[in-house]
Amino acid sequence: MGKIYDIFIVGGGINGAGIARDASGRGLSIFLCEQGDLAEFTSSASTKLIHGGLRYLEYYDFRLVREALMERERVLDIAPHIVGPLRFVLPHNGGLRPAWMIRIGLFLYDHLAKRKTLPGTESVRLRTSPIGQPLQDWLNKGFLYSDCWVDDARLVVLNAMDARERGAEIHTRMRFLNARRDNGVWMAEVEDLATGKRREIAAKMIINTGGPWVSEVLRDRLHMQTGKNVRLVKGSHIVVPKLYEGAHAFLFQNPDRRIVFAIPYQGKFTLIGTTDEPYKDKPGKVEISKEETTYLCESISRYFKKKVVPSDVIWAYSGVRPLYDDAAANASAVTRDYVLDIESKPGEEPLLSVFGGKITTFRRLAEHAFEKLSPFFPNLKPSWTATKPLPGGDLPEGDFGRFLASVRAKWPFLPEATAQRMAHAYGTRIDKVLGKAKALSDLGQDFGGGLTRAEVDYLIAEEWAQTAEDILWRRTKLGLHAPASTGGELAAYLKDRATKTV
Q1: CB burial class (10 A; 0-12, 13-18, 19+) of residue 476?
Q2: Is the peptide bond prior to 486 cis by the omega test (within 30 degrees of 0)?
Q3: CA–CA separation, 344 vs 181, rounded Å?
Q4: DSSP state of 376
Q5: Which of 401, 491, 414 minimizes the C-alpha distance to 84?
Q6: What angle do CA 437, 440, 445 make, to 5 degrees?
Q7: pLDDT at residue number 192
Q8: pLDDT top residue among 43 and 226
Q9: How many Å apart are CA 85 and CA 425, to the nearest integer?
Q10: Least packed by Cβ within 10 Å: which of 36, 44, 306, 385?
């Protein structure tokens, strides 16, 4: 039979990678398979926020908000290179929610969980404050509160890297086909999508973190029925040229009671989102519709002096969120909480399925999972992920500014934008990318936008990158900055490199 793993994980999104990290650090052997790239689907299509979820208070989801607020501080501590504080401006629209209701909500937001570093709420007069300059004149009163931004795709990759460094096996472009219980273990069949080769993996337990595919995995691959389901909701975002100066974000209330964010993004842009549309098709690659683009443009134009129109959109992305189906009538009201479902009769090998969840609570979700699974692993080591930095996150005193200065001093030949991007992306692991380089020419071919052969080779060797899309849109976000020729040149290099290594 060969090696028997403790856990076989289906899915390499944030929950799968987070569980793999937690489990491997507790001494369990892990085999994770992901049908695409890490974070290729839902986990790279978020609003790029680590946040408590202010609007969830309106649905009395106090437990989720408190947990998310606590996790906001923890994730900021363990990944200060890819997570950072972000101040939000919430203009008051008197026709939607009264000011007293917003004040109560923000008071709860400040006090449901302890804040260590993030400043609390304050009021602002938008007409007289520079912060209100880009807004229309009818907006006078507003509120400031705190949350955090995050590089969502890199958060997934760093969890997977930490899991691998603690012994986990992480396999991308590998499809889970089926599994059966056999003589005390699960026998899972997988297919390498690059070669077409199939193999069986033996494991004591399966954890189903299939995200939008979680129900399909149960129904079609494991031939099981469950009373729990996910409700698929499509969320889309647009990116436009920068609409305003400043490092703050905006949260706007719409007449349909949905909210839309405007967030500084990648230095030159504003990220706008999100929509909440019921989704009935098969999950996978999805695209924004004309109606969603119009909705987001009109939502932003309702508040900004500068109108946003569909022709302003530089890039758009969409994802399918696997929300736990709590029978809410409105897609926006569906809970963002998660449910962990264990299927195991006495004497049977256990199966854990994860329904729902949000990127902010991934670490606690994994911790919670092992609280439930502890009876199956009596020698399980204690929880540990709340304080151990993710790869590259061990910045001196957690001070990114100080760390960036050290990067500039050690590699002064880097353009300022490249130094800042790489310091954010790799943190203290930047040495593995740049090494002893003394000039840009030491880093090899320049593909454009500051992307060099040295960085590409690192991403292939250390971060499972295989395609130009992996590199330009998930590992680096240089798809927004690099010239049009970069994609083709990079694809040609990757093809040539793969040919030489076969």
Answers
A1: buried
A2: no
A3: 11
A4: G
A5: 401
A6: 105
A7: 98
A8: 43
A9: 16
A10: 306
- Rounded to 5 degrees, what angle do the CA atoms 268, 270, 274 make? 150
Residues 6+ apart with CB under 8 A from 232: 212, 278, 279, 280, 283, 320, 321, 322, 323
Q: Which two tokens stand for residue 62?
A: 């106090």
Q: Is residue 153 within 8 Å of 474, Cβ to Cβ?
A: yes
Handedness of CA 485, 486, 492, 493 (dihedral sign): positive
d(CA 242, CA 256): 26
Instruction: For residue 334, name the pLDDT band (cuts at 50, 70, 90).
Output: low
Could you tell me the two tokens for 316? 């758009």
State the pLDDT confidence band at 299, using cuts at 50, 70 and 90.
very high
SS (H, E, C) 202-249: EEEEEEECCHHHHHHHHHHHCCCCCCCCEEEEEEEEEEEECCCCCCCE
Rounded Cα distance between 146 and 51, Å, is: 9
Q: 79-116 b/e with 16+ CB inside 10 Å = b?
A: bbbbbbbbbbbbbbbeeeeeeeebeebbebbbebbebe
Q: How far apart are CA 233 and CA 52, in angstroms?
A: 20
Most confident of 49-63, 163-177, 326-340: 163-177
- In degrees and rounded to multiples of 5, residue 199 shows phi and psi of -150, 165
Query: Could you give the dihedral angle defined by the CA atoms of residues 71, 273, 160 and 11, in that order, rounded to the nearest 10 degrees?
Result: 110
Other CB atoms within 10 A of residue 483 CB? 10
Q: Are 450 and 424 in contact (CB under 8 A)?
A: no
Residue 441 to residue 484: CA distance in whole angstroms: 22
What digits encode the pLDDT tens for the residues 416-461?
Answer: 999 999 999 999 999 999 999 999 999 999 999 999 999 999 999 9
In this prediction the pTM is 0.97
Determine the 3-state secondary structure of 180 from DSSP.
Answer: strand
